[in-house]
């Protein structure tokens, strides 16, 4: 059985990733051993609350949740209520009555000890903090959603949101991997923004979910995201980056990837969070990433409905 540790910043698409992982957990395909959160879409306290609320709604309140680092390594925290809503989950307002594990590092240590797959769908603050004193040895794999690698950004002309929030963490994380010999599977915007849910797909998903409690909250969760994307000129639909990333991390869909060296700009005001892949080995530097270059999007939609049927049972 695959064991999974999710580090996230819910976030609408993080919530859908949690729903997917919960479905696989319920039928014994994976064990979700823990969820930790970073500050990103909203504050770290709110991301932890949103994760706990999602897990409760999904019947997994026993999974430990802990808030991680409260702010980026070297820059002030910027959140995105215009994208994910005032509380990070669209038009919803989760309750505040949740208790969290005291130490996010303890969850990571336990996950590492059982060889969990580490999936990171928020800023890399926790991962960079971990890397400063520990290795990524014994994690089954590392997968990251982030970056606009050699591609247009969604936050600035060149930067993706997660890397822009904490550029120093992203830079240090990939530098650490280059020295350690580990490779992170990197799912960047060029691929993840292809995974779209629109109104017909949402209706189908809700129909498949049936009486599952998550079905009752999805419309208000996603309506905000649809409206945001429409205001950006991208149509009444939403890019579900983090859900696609979890499917790739667990090899549930086919994808193409290339080993390369990733670097992230941290200090330039104009290029903050910009990510670059050295695809022609100009730097002659050790590889630190498997950059996903294509994924089977049709299969991802099929996989989502498969998982939804588990939640409906």
TrEMBL record:
SUPFAM superfamilies: Nucleoside hydrolase. GO terms for cellular component: cytosol. It comes from the Bacteria. Residues 4-299 form the Inosine/uridine-preferring nucleoside hydrolase domain. One of its GO terms (molecular function) is purine nucleosidase activity. Pfam families: IU_nuc_hydro. GO terms for biological process: purine nucleoside catabolic process. Keywords: Glycosidase, Hydrolase. This is Nucleoside hydrolase.
């Amino acid at each position: 059985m695959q064991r999974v540790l999710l580090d996230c910043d819910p976030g609408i698409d993080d919530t859908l990733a949690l729903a997917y992982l919960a479905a696989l957990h319920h039928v014994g395909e994976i064990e979700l051993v823990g969820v930790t959160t970073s500050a990103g879409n909203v504050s770290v306290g709110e991301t932890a609350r949103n994760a706990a609320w999602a897990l409760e709604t999904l019947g997994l309140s026993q999974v430990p949740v802990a808030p991680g680092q409260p702010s980026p390594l070297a820059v002030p925290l910027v959140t995105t209520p215009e994208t994910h809503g005032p509380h990070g989950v669209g038009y919803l307002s989760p309750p505040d009555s949740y208790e969290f594990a005291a130490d996010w590092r303890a969850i990571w240590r336990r996950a590492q000890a059982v060889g969990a797959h580490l999936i990171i769908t928020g800023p890399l603050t926790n991962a960079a903090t971990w890397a400063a004193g520990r290795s990524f040895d014994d994690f089954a794999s590392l997968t990251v959603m982030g970056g606009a690698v050699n591609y247009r950004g969604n936050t600035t002309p060149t930067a993706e949101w997660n890397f822009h929030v904490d550029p120093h963490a992203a830079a240090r994380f990939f530098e650490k991997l280059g020295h350690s010999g580990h490779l992170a599977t990197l799912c960047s915007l060029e691929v993840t923004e292809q995974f779209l849910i629109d109104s017909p797909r949402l209706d189908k998903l809700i129909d498949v979910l049936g009486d599952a409690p998550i079905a009752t909250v999805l419309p208000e969760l996603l309506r905000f995201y649809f409206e945001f994307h429409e205001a950006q000129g991208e149509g009444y639909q939403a890019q579900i980056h983090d859900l696609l990333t979890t499917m790739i991390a667990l090899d549930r869909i086919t994808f193409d990837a290339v080993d390369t060296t990733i670097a992230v700009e941290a200090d330039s005001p104009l290029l903050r969070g910009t990510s670059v892949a050295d695809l022609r080995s100009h730097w002659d530097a050790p590889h630190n990433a498997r950059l996903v270059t294509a994924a089977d999007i049709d299969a991802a939609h099929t996989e989502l409905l498969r998982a939804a049927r588990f939640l409906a049972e």
